[in-house]
Amino acid sequence: MIRDVRLMWTGSGPTVLLIFLLSLPAYGQPTDSRGEARGVISISDSPKARLHTVPVSAVRIGPGFWKDRMEINRKKSIPSLYQLLEENGIVDNFRRLSGRKEGPRRGPLYTDSDLYKWMEAAAWVLASGADPELQALLDRLTEELGAAQGPDGYLNSYYSLERAQDRFTNFQHGHELYCLGHLLQAGIAKSRATGKDDLLQVGRRYADYVVATLGPGRKAAFTGHPELEMAMVELFRTTGERRYLAFADYLLNAEKPEFKLSARDIAYAFSLMPITRRKILEGHSVRATYALCGAADYYLESGQESLLNILETMWSDMVRGKLYLTGGLGSRESGEAIGDAYELPNERAYTETCAAIGNMMWNWRMLQITAEARFADLCERTLYNAILPGVSWSGDAYFYRNPLASSGNLSRRNWYSTTCCPPNIQRTLASLPGYFLSTSKSGLWVHQYQNLELDWKLENGTPLQVQMETRYPWDGNIALVVKPRKATSFSLHLRIPGWCETAHYRLNGGKSLPVPVKGAEVGQYFMLDRAWQPGDRVELVLDMPIRLIQCNPAAAENLNRLAVFRGPILYCYEPVEPGQPSPVDLRLQTGILPQTRYQTRWDPELWGGTLLLQVPFRAVQPGHRDMPLYYPAREEGKPVKAALPPRTTLIPYFAWGNRGAAEMSVWLPRD
Ligand code: FUB
Ligand code: ZN
To answer: Total domain count for the chain?
Structure first.
């Protein structure tokens, strides 16, 4: 590492230069102030990490699906949201504290976190390439925050000035610790992306104040809205200071008898009692997933087995009955809460975008702990089908709720007074390159498929470049060219998604062989273990037939309905053309073999190129609008004979709501 250079300076000139060059992270990646290139979470020293993240800057996303989304994020979403943060007074709230602006504070009490998330997004953009204008803006905002900070380190635009006496009096709803968590995440991202520690120092001053003021033997505290748990662990990883880790331990594990709250409050306040006491996944869905991220982070550092047990318990509870097909979470508007098992309404689904992001962050951590593909599968499902729908194709309008059906009355908006989701999507998209790959002692792990170039190193220190070429998610042909700087033995672990029923691979143009081999199965990592030569080429083919999915009958709304997937993409029916039948009046035909009647159609114009599905339907007549509310069972609508084309088009669910107001449904009545 660079900080070791001073000690090495006793050698001869060329030796020093050589040692210095060898000590640099691979290929001159941007490094933080400790001279280290680090991932979204930095777990290379975490005792319980089976896998290790790669830096965002080490992965260059090539032209294709995610590149387009990331470019829109950088060019449209991030600038337009900044404008709105200014217009809505969110930055001025800090300028009031530094005396640079007068007037009342604006917005709900947690708006500081929205600016911090935006700053984190801007920082991760800089990890993928220089953008002097964005860098200058980020630096300017960093200075503004520094100027707004109190001499004791406290920084919160709501609990200052006229409300200074209320500081740390309302842990359940006050969001002071939540906002601090996001400030730290932004500071860490800026440090990792640009090497500049100034924002991290602002966050650290506040963290130091909190650690010195709150906690065991001091004033009791809990995070009504978790976030600080994971931020404190990340701050420990960044600085090496154990007191930050100890504070995360306090939040996650300590009894807090000082607080008397109702049972409902306890369900919502995740660090009010030890998290290991929880039995089911319940409460506010964003709070729950963020708390579980914190628990996973703390487990990674501490090895506290009871935390791993609770993480598994919560995950099983989620996938058995509480997870939407999209990967979204949160059935109820009331309390923005996760519902009971099988309580999965479609149109009334709350499924906040932030909850989907929390779910992906949690699964990402579980993946690094276990190296099990089920967690990468869920990251994939959530990313394409629960996070991406949260932003419009144009990049400047957002869903807060992501229902699985609509009567045509919901549209994305540019701004919400609680604007938590827009910057959350932005930081997720900006940091996405950091979520595609990991390393371990054994080699490289490929979790997600996309055109990209990796420029990093194996854990034995050998520089490694990998080129991946694919049209994923539209087809499952993936080519990887592996270029270790010198011939090296290691394992290449390729995820065979759980949705994939057959897969093949080919090495250096040889014979196509079926996966599984060597015990690998779909829904696992397929391990290619060999002495890799620079330029070795692997071709992987993941078959992507159209798949019909049904739901456990206990989720009553989905009874006798089917959903349609192809590869990782969930499709929906959105009749935008005049005269197209309502989703309620269509019957998906299933008595015919899918491969002959279910087809794909590439539309090069729609959203920059989209694969549509053409599926066989029949419609019923009269349509539901002409029928009474209740009627004898045998008087069902009659099938319409030739009035409709034999097939109709389904679009990717992530793209719904981009063509004007229309009905939409994911779950389609079956014939
Ligand atoms: O409380 C802050 C954010 O606002 C939460 O994460 C969202 O669910 C929304 O309530
Ligand atoms: Zn949100």
So the answer is: 4
User: pLDDT tens across 126-154, in order?
Assistant: 999 999 999 999 999 999 999 999 999 99
Give Rg (Cα) of the chain: 26
Q: Which of 396, 425, 454 is the last residue of a domain?
A: 425
Structure tokens at 270: 């995740």
Answer yes or no: do 413 and 458 share one domain. Answer: no
Question: Ligand 1 pocket check: which of 354, 427, 428 to mutate, most ligand atoms within 8 Å of Cβ?
Answer: 354
Q: Return left, alpha or beta for 107; rule: phi > 0 is left, psi -120 to 50 is alpha, else beta.
A: left
336 lines ligand 1 (CB under 6 A): yes
Q: Are residues 297 and 265 in the same domain?
A: no
Give the bridge partners for 490, in sequence order. Answer: 530
Ligand 1 centroid–CA 421 distance in Å is: 8
Which residue's structure tokens are 């729908």?
389
Q: Closest ligand 1 atom to the C-alpha of 336?
A: 8
250-295 residue pLDDT tens = 999 999 999 988 877 877 777 889 999 999 999 999 999 999 999 9
Cα 328 to middle of ligand 2, angstroms: 12
Same domain, 498 and 568: no
Whole-angstrom distance, CA of residue 56 vs CA of residue 121: 12
Domain stop point among 510, 542, 574: 542
Structural domain range at position 314: 287-425
Residue 327 shares a structural domain with residue 476: no
Please tell me if the CB atom of residue 281 comes closer than 6 angstroms to any atom of ligand 1: no
Does residue 296 lie within any of the structural domains? yes
In DSSP notation, 594-635 reads HHHH-EEEEESSGGGSEEEEEEEEEEEES-GGGS-SS--TT-
Out of 284, 285, 333, give the residue to mutate to test ligand 1, the one with the largest number of ligand atoms within 8 Å of its CB.
284
Q: Could you write out the DSSP letters of every residue in 214-236?
A: BSTTSB----SS--HHHHHHHHH
Question: Would the CB of 192 count as within 6 Å of ligand 1?
Answer: no
- Is 216 contained in some domain? yes
pTM for the model stands at 0.95
Instruction: Give start and end residues of each alpha helix (H) in 491-608.
Output: 594-597
